[in-house]
Design brief:
The radius of gyration is 21 Å and the shape is globular. It has helices at about 25-35, 45-50, 55-65, 80-95, 115-125, 140-145, 170-180, 195-200, 210-215, 220-240, 260-265, and strands at about 5-10, 10-15, 15-20, 40-45, 70-75, 100, 130-135, 155, 185, 205-210. Helix 8 (about 195-200) packs parallel to helix 10 (about 220-240). By secondary structure, the protein is α/β, with parallel strands linked by helices. It has eleven helices and ten strands. It has a single domain (about 5-245), classed as Alpha-Beta Barrel (TIM Barrel), CATH 3.20.20. The strands form three sheets. The chain has a five-stranded parallel sheet with strand order 5-4-3-10-9. A three-stranded parallel sheet has the order 6-7-8.
Length: about 270
């Protein structure tokens, strides 16, 4: 059976779960969750780790030891200049051109600033970054991000940390239908494995989450559950889900008799 790998910027990954490294009660709890999830990509924030100043060095060393692809983010940035500068610092310190681009436009729901996001993405692509923008589920915004050179998009399911799941399924389905060849990762708002599974059943390529695992009573067990749900959702999508119907359709014939009963009468 041909393996079903996730491909992002020319690199392939076995897992379709991307896991954040913030909010865990301890570095060991974080490591246990990463191992249990079997993820291949982890996100991290320079502002929180700041390994250059040895602040949070223990967490940074633990993350390096996982062997996962590092995806630094620009969390908390509110301007294009701020996001670009932080991305450059992250590339220098973490040694990777990969960046999860975030430009906050609203402090209440942490919604991305669409104008700043496109401008920052364009500048970072010019500087050789592999940009994974955290964006809303707006089709036109996503098209703009693709036009400036982004090869992966990460639309939200709901605002960060809310656990609300897929609030606008119409928009998400539209993205999947209109951008069939673009890797789409649902990022933010996923609170339960069932929600992650549903997104994968819709044809999304991967899920990025943090809070739902980090704040669970048993983070490692929850990470394992998310990994299994994402794999199940992907398999269901590839297998082909049945179409919904308005009327019942019996699995056992109601016209005539079942084959086995007819065969018994002929004996």
């Amino acid at each position: 059976m041909q393996s079903d790998l996730l491909t992002l910027y020319g690199e392939t990954f076995n897992s379709r779960l991307l896991l954040g490294t913030a909010l865990y009660p301890s570095p060991q709890t974080m490591l246990d969750a990463i191992n249990a999830s079997r993820c291949d990509i982890v996100t991290l924030g320079l502002r929180r780790q700041n390994p250059k100043d040895r602040d949070g060095a223990q967490i940074w060393e633990a993350i390096k030891g996982t062997g996962c692809r590092l995806l630094p983010n620009t969390a908390g940035c509110k301007t294009v200049k701020e996001a670009v500068n932080l991305a450059e610092m992250s590339r220098e310190i973490f040694g990777t051109p990969w960046i999860k681009l975030e430009v906050v436009g609203d402090d209440y729901n942490l919604q991305p600033d669409p104008f700043g996001l496109v401008e920052a993405a364009a500048e970072l692509v010019k500087r050789g970054f592999k940009v994974l923008p955290y964006c809303t589920d707006d089709l036109v915004l996503c098209q703009k991000l693709l036009s400036v050179g982004c090869e992966v998009l990460m639309p939200w399911g709901a605002p960060i940390g809310t656990g609300q799941g897929l609030l606008n399924k119409y928009n998400l389905r539209t993205l999947r239908e209109r951008l069939p060849d673009v890797p789409l990762i649902v990022d933010a708002g996923i609170g339960a494995p069932s929600q992650a599974c549903e997104a994968m059943e819709m044809g999304f390529d991967a899920i990025l989450l943090n809070t739902a695992v980090a704040k669970a009573q048993q983070p490692a067990l929850m990470a394992q559950a998310f990994g299994a749900a994402i794999a199940a959702g992907r398999a269901a999508y590839k297998g082909g889900l049945m179409q919904k119907r308005q009327t019942a359709s019996p699995s056992t014939p109601v016209i005539g008799q079942p084959f086995w009963h007819q065969q018994k009468q002929q004996q």
